[in-house]
């Protein structure tokens, strides 16, 4: 029997249970709303205040020369700022270090005067009495930053940033390239080797509550990975000398510019790429947009007589000619198809040998020797020696121009035998002579030795391609004829390198007027050769862009002699020990 005494507690229990169930139900409904119905909204809201962190920048890799000399590197610099309002607040509270004294200490580190530092603050306060920002000095070194930091001034702040420096200035500057204001590579090796040089930024992140307090255990750190080190094949000391020399020679000849390219015969490695005007990546404003890129790779030109050796190669292998083969040639002749060909000097009819045609650089004779083979054969030899193909994919590199045979007209049928109606770059010209010097084996040129990652891993480029473009016997005959050019040609006295047997061939190319014709009396001159003849080690190519003092290829003779002499000294190449064969006859 239920009594009144027992009904009271039971009723209270039921009521309490109902209240509890109601509260629980309310929580359940609310949780369902938060976690299911409005889940996306709440997640998005949480991310606005829970996620925080900062990027940890990696450092861009360095560029070094063949011997490890640093040509480009990245350093941290610091931009310092002051808080004028804080300075005034602390001044009112009689700080341990008064602003008059602190400003002198700051100035002693930044290289300013105390008055200059105080003026910066005064000017900022004049514009805004509550100013929190006044720029003090940009690009402070790490040493300066530490000295200022150690002053422990609450109103002095720093912003660290990375900057690119080029310790050797303009040495190989056009090859190195540069970065723009955003740190993006714009040219040269900086652009070409971006995948090696570029760092991978890290990140420091954590979670916070709405009050900004870091949630324990939410911290996450991803370390930055610095860029790798690119090692070049360039010898920076040699490059420095050649830049000074070609700058002097080009200006002496009144030329718009000049270049020197040096290639190692047995490897195809580019050991120097010097040019004037030179670009200093530290000071882009001192150069023009046109001179910020390597003209060695960017400018193509008709090779002129330097490619008569390639015509000789085609005739030797395609028509069975030899250095003693002959052809009769006057200084001006009209060919059966109506083409008119002239030599650069007036002379009667000579019975030229092939060797003599190269020595005197007779266009008429080369036209006759060259057309002993079909245009298709000559086109094939031009391709074999690298015309129309980029050498190594350098940024802004041009491929030159090689017209298909179907576009050769009556005139170009002959002018292609002496280096006209197609164009090359200096590296292409160097590569062609590298093949001759290397017993007919052409090796792709290279500029990169390796990329060494931040972890020490060394990655080297694929081995360069090798191709036998002419036989060893043909290469030997070409070498002998080119040595005779150096000994018997018009520049013989000016290009001698004491102790060494040298080959050479000049080129005097007409310059396009942009309308299908040529500029009157304007030329792009060049000279190429290798040494020593008895054991070829290095190819040297010198060019001058529109010289005005001497407009023929003789303009390059002095620069070629100086360049070849310095290359022999730099690499301590043994002097020639085998005497030259007797001179080849110029006439049959």
Automatic annotation (TrEMBL):
InterPro entries: Beta-lactam/transpept, Beta-lactam/transpept-like, PBP_dimer, PBP_dimer_sf, PCN-bd_Tpept. It comes from the Bacteria. Residues 258-564 form the Penicillin-binding protein transpeptidase domain. The keyword Membrane applies. Keywords: Membrane. Residues 56-212 form the Penicillin-binding protein dimerisation domain. It is found in: Membrane. PANTHER family: PEPTIDOGLYCAN D,D-TRANSPEPTIDASE, PEPTIDOGLYCAN D,D-TRANSPEPTIDASE FTSI. Belongs to the transpeptidase family. This is Penicillin-binding protein 2.
